[in-house]
Write a sequence for this structure.
């Protein structure tokens, strides 16, 4: 069996990465914290621990508009998943979050990045379209890390351009972390399960002095895989994810607060091995069907993926007077990624792709806002960000001889890209009796610079590539009007605009620009707190989505695989969604959500691989057949998604408590490509769990995918030296885990 080539690279370079990144990170704000001598008053909990359903709305305070507000008072669709549900529903990965929120399609892609759309906005494998945040700082890597020691997860639906800027065209997902507690509260967790799962986690939290608090959380997750390789006679998918977060909160006086956080993550997996060959189809004329799902591969190479992340954030909150508060957030982020993929997916050496990427991000945000003591709430801010990306990718072509493998061609692609963003924004909310009017706008200026070098066998004519700097600017307005029908019921209408910035991309021996995506959303909704603790929210929406990006894979006589990113046209997305939470009896609560989205292409043009293959079968020199997609369904948009949860809690004597939870999910059909050729059939999932609680400990057990449902989380058409084929990634099989948490 061959070791992954990336493992040797990581052994040489990983230690240096940690040293360089660690030194830089420690330099940010350390003196602020360690110069403190007095104590911290604990930050109040931002969310009440509702024990209700899949998405709990009971008195949840969120920060979607960058100030603390009751979720029911915000004129927008927001789902909040509190820490109790994260634990009891055993939310450990992106797929689990996607199953909790209507009209959210969220999975982990083969390269360990998120594949996500909200209401059909966003694109798998091209641009993210939905921003991921740790508190108010955007994440560019590490979005797939297990949500450990998280207070809640907020899902903001619809364009978030006004307050969050570009790259949030579909919405945003925020992980709100926990701060130090006023008294020492420590806990440790051990989890064991199928596929050699063993996970450890620990939290230490409390005051160092009466003004300085600390919280340290750490985790170490380990598991084997569930994909069997018939060529090597072994199982793949093994991996680990270990990391820590260290948070200091210093409050020298009531009006001043410093929050300094350090994060580190070390991740390794054989995730690329989870990809399997779906079809062997030279003409791309046979779409795959549901009965072709399988948990086996026959790859010649043994790829892997490595990622290391170090980041730090310093947030300063200063109450300037009784009416105005200042917030300043300084953040930096470093990541190191090494991945190797066997694109041929065959038991012979054909094509091995190395994908290396390093990110370095520096950002600064400063904002002033009212403290909510009058009828006028306002917020103004400025934002700047530097994002440097270094790509070093290589493609090794082999002679297809497993007994004597020889490299017959290479393609090395080196890119250095720098993206910069500068923005000013403001948001004003005026309360007049039962009415609430919100006006917001953001002006953003951005640049993109890229240099590239191609070293190929045979060599290209012009290996050194440069392009003029790309610049752009966008305005992202937001208008909402809300009316309070009664003490516990609000109706609202919102118009919001978001965008995905234009960019430079290196492809096919040239650097080409891609245009920005633009989405304008129109939404009407209602939110209500009903008698006996029940809640109900509903919304209808229409989204005008222009210049959508898509990744097109094309066969090239020299490069073998060519990946082309291009704007192919507009779509119109519309749908409806609703969420509810209802107490049935004193010990039961039923909750859930349902949503439907239609995403229909307008005049969008796409090089259709099926029609092109048919034309080239008659005439090999025939050009690609361009198809107008007008009226077809855009990809990655399930027709419907629904979730339902039943939770039971029973108090015993002496402070003991029993609990159980059943989560069901149903997802409608969707398509994987723009021309509605490859279809994902509808599927249903069932998860169950139970827990036994005492003051000092909790024992729990959980079974995910009880019925053993099979479906693909990723699918695309690919080319290799030989017949074209399709590649998919299957979901997790049925998995049982049990855990014990001990508090001290």
């Amino acid at each position: 069996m061959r070791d992954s080539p990336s493992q040797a690279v990581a052994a040489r370079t990983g230690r240096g990465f940690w040293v360089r990144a660690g030194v830089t990170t420690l330099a940010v704000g350390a003196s602020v914290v360690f110069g403190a001598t007095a104590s911290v008053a604990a930050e109040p909990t931002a969310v009440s621990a509702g024990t209700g359903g899949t998405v709990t709305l009971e008195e949840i305070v969120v920060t979607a508009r960058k100030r603390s507000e009751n979720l029911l008072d915000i004129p927008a669709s927001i789902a909040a998943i509190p820490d109790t549900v994260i634990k009891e529903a055993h939310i450990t990965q992106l797929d689990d979050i996607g199953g909790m929120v209507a009209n959210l399609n969220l999975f982990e892609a083969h390269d360990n990045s998120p594949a996500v759309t909200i209401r059909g906005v966003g694109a798998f494998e091209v641009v993210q379209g939905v921003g991921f945040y740790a508190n108010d700082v955007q994440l560019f890597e590490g979005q797939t890390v297990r949500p450990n020691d998280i207070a809640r997860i907020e899902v903001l639906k619809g364009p978030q351009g006004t307050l969050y800027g570009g790259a949030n065209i579909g919405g945003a997902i925020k992980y709100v972390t926990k701060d130090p507690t006023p008294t020492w509260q420590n806990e440790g967790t051990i989890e064991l399960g199928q596929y050699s799962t063993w996970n450890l986690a620990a939290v230490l939290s409390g005051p160092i002095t009466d003004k300085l608090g600390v919280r340290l959380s750490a985790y170490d997750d380990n598991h084997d895989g569930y994909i069997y390789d018939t060529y090597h006679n072994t199982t793949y998918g093994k991996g680990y994810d270990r990391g820590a977060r260290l948070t200091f909160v210093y409050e020298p006086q009531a009006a001043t607060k410093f929050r300094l956080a350090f994060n580190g993550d070390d991740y390794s997996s054989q995730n690329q091995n989870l990809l399997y060959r779906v079809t062997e189809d030279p003409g791309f004329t046979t779409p795959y069907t549901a009965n072709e799902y399988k948990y086996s591969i026959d790859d010649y190479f043994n790829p892997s993926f490595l990622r290391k992340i170090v980041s730090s954030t310093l947030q300063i909150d200063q109450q300037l007077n009784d009416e105005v508060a200042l917030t300043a957030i300084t953040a930096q982020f470093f990541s190191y990624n090494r991945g190797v993929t066997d694109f041929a997916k065959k038991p012979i050496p054909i094509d091995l792709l190395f994908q290396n990427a390093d990110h370095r991000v520096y950002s600064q945000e400063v904002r002033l806002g009212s403290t909510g003591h009058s009828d006028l709430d306002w917020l103004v801010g400025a934002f700047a960000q530097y994002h440097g990306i270094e790509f070093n990718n290589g493609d090794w072509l082999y002679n297809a001889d497993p007994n004597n493998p020889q490299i017959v061609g290479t393609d090395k692609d080196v890119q250095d890209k720098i993206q910069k963003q500068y923005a000013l924004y403001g948001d004003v909310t005026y309360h007049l009796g039962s009415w609430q009017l919100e006006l917001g706008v953001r002006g953003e200026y951005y640049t993109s610079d890229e240099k590239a070098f191609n070293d190929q066998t045979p060599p290209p004519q012009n290996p050194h590539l440069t392009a003029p700097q790309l610049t752009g600017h966008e305005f992202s307005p937001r208008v909402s009007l809300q009316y309070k029908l009664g003490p516990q019921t609000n109706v609202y209408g919102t118009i919001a605009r978001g965008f995905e910035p234009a960019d430079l991309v290196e492809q096919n021996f040239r650097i080409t620009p891609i245009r920005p995506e633009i989405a304008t959303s129109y939404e009407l909704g209602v939110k209500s707190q009903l008698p006996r603790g029940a809640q109900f929210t509903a919304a209808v929406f229409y989204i005008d989505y222009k210049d959508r990006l898509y990744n097109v894979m094309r066969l090239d006589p020299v490069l073998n695989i060519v990946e082309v990113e291009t704007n192919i046209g507009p779509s119109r997305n519309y749908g409806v969604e609703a969420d509810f939470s209802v107490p049935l009896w004193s010990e039961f609560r039923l909750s859930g959500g349902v949503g439907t989205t239609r995403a229909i292409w307008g005049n969008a043009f796409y090089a259709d691989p099926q029609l092109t293959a048919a034309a080239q079968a008659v005439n090999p020199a025939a050009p690609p057949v361009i198809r107008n997609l007008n009226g077809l369904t855009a990809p990655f948009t399930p027709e419907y998604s629904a979730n339902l949860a039943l939770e039971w809690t029973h108090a015993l004597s002496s402070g003991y408590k029993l609990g159980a939870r059943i989560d069901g999910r149903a997802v409608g059909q969707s398509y994987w490509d723009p021309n509605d050729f490859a279809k994902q059939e509808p599927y249903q999932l069932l998860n169950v769990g139970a827990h036994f609680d005492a003051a000092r400990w909790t024992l729990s057990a959980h079974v995910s995918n009880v019925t053993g449902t099979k479906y693909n989380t990723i699918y695309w058409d690919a080319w290799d030296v030989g017949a074209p084929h399709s590649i998919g990634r299957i979901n997790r099989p049925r998995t049982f885990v049990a855990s014990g948490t001990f508090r001290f």
Notes: The first helix runs from residue 5 to 26.
